Amino acid sequence: MSAGAGPASGIVSSTSGVVAYDWRSVRVGGGGFTPGIVFSPVERGLAWLRSDMGGAYRWDAAAKQWVPLQDRVSESSFMGIESIAADPVDAGTVYLAAGMNWSAPAAIFRSTDYGKTWREARVPFAMGGNENGRGLGERLAIDPFAHDRLLFASRHQGLWASDDAGANWRKLDAFPLAGLGLPTNRRETHGGLSFVVFDAKLRGRVFVGSADPGDRHLLRSDDGGKTWSAVTGGPAADMLPVKAVIGSDGLLTITYCDGIGPNGITRGAVWRFDPARGAWRDVTPKVMPSRGAQAPVGGYMGVAVAASDPQTIAVSTVDRSNPVDTVWLSHDGGAHWDELWKRSVRDVSATPFLDFGGKANFGHWIAGLAIDPFDANHAAYVTGATVYATGELQKSGTMQWAPWTQGIEQTAIITLVSPTGGAHLVSGFGDIGGFRHDDFTVSPAHQHINPFLSNTNTLDYGGRAPLVMVRSGNTHARVVPDTSLAWSADGGATWSLLHVPKGAPHADGTPLPEETGNAAITVSADGRTFLVETDQPRLTRNRGATWQAVTGLPSRTRVTSDKQDAKRFYAIDFASNRVVRSDDGGARFRALVGKGLPADLSAAHSDNREAPAPILADPNRAGALWLNLGGALYRSADFGDSWQRTGQAITIERYGLGKAAPGRKDAALYALGTLGGLRAVWRSIDGGATWQQINDEAHQWGLRIRVISGDPRQFGRIYIGTDGRGIVYGDPRTGPAEGTE
After folding, report:
1. Which keywords, in A-to-Z order, does the entry hold (predicted)?
2. Could you tell me the residue ranges of all domains in the chain?
3. Which CATH class for the 31-403 domain?
4. Is 52 among the catalytic positions?
């Protein structure tokens, strides 16, 4: 379905107040970190993928796309996948270890129907699916000789076992490493037990790695976990085992790093262990120079062994910035290595954003690496931005790779707008900037560049001149190298740099908001005035050629422009607890009485540069405003002079406005909120008086929702920017098109 397609009329509404909606993803393709990929050992064409904040996926070979598996999940934490395990007997059975961080809920999910339905079992140990060390693993493993028995290598609380297919768990007290316990600081975590590997050919043999500091990093049991012994030898104690795999010859191949990653790794190694002889061998690829200041920085993480030939081994580097991360391939058990980066090319035409910094390189954060057990030519590796696959792993000469991301939308959306003209959707992403979306079914060609700001923090458009757009953003550096501001005259297809004069330096030496991306920018309804929220707010009416100070507007407060009246801008002065308004195009602001508002407006305040403006303006009516005060919704029809409370039954977290329903005057409201004890996505077409649920059990996305907007030209259309599952959009179900432009 393309962006121009209209929504449905003949809205289906049940007596329970649910409006039936059809939901689809806006295609970008990949975009984020997917730390682990696992091929099924028993069914050709079946693979599983885990992401750090967007749930898990299954490759559907018939449909040739990845299928998201956890859109039904309403618990935010369960979208961070710590580990994944494919059953070695029954292809349709798969397990997910889900938990975003150590302070959030954690569970083991089990499916016996390829992920269509799940059994959830809350567990007493913590996980860290989106913490440092998320590339380690796999931490969850199934006993190939008793496939209802599982082991889980936890980060903080030792080794755990289940004898009933993950329904119940007990700590293995016989295991000698009890764990370091939960951190005391939310920003901290532990690598903990990094992997569990069963030997598929020898009953009872299992290995567990430890990425915590200490002198015991590899533990072995030959009786199914009843007794354990530390495996001596191998690399120095400061090398931490991060991933391992056992080949059909019984040899264990382990990758090592001097940290748990995905950042901060400076050294690494690859070793092989022969359990029958108790012998170690260092098979680290030899890189010249291998020592001294010129030696490449970085470690090794991904590891795979071909099922058809245990002498065929692949490993990936991680954090090797010079020259680039790579995959190494050996056909003789690690005696000799081939560096695949040097003879690989990548076709990213299906996801052109990967070329934004020049031709897409081999990748970074290559934590996951797998060789198809049914086809040794088919291999895949993950990066911080995509998943690459090849069908030519065994080929000599140039090797072709391409993104393997059809169906994967693993991105964090910071902001989005649906303008009154031009493309129906323009987005602001974390890490990859954002896009103008002309067709929702293809990865967009128009990425926000000139400048490229990795995070787009704010977006705005002129309500009566919607092709004029402005944005602010930041990079991953403390200070943006050039400018954190840009404007567009063609609806986001191309952008121009916008420089605002620097303000007075901060006494404490902290960077200015215009240097960090903290200064939001707003455009007037006619597209002629740009107002930037620096320490001393400034505006320009000539695209940045000259600037003037704004009076009466507090420092660093978010401004909203009226979408129809170019003279009007609105904001909240939290020091005086008053709404302020400009009637002269932004030059001067004055306080309003704000009749009907509570005395304390602080609930609408946020220092987060990514937070939406507290006041929203109806895109199709001058002076029609909305304000969310800590979940309570207020509205004004007279440019902010007076307000009235509405929607008393609902507590709102995020909300947006869209085209009014046929025969209605008020903008349609769309919200993430709680009503009657149910946290869901809701719609109101009567100014907030009554609400109907528009999502359902199959469309929850962890309820990790950062931004919501309706469409000002299509009644019923809603856009949702999630934190991990990309952008989804919905239209009322069934019937011919109605209310479209």
Report:
1. Carbohydrate metabolism, Glycosidase, Hydrolase, Polysaccharide degradation, Signal
2. 31-403, 413-508+593-710+727-732
3. mainly beta
4. yes
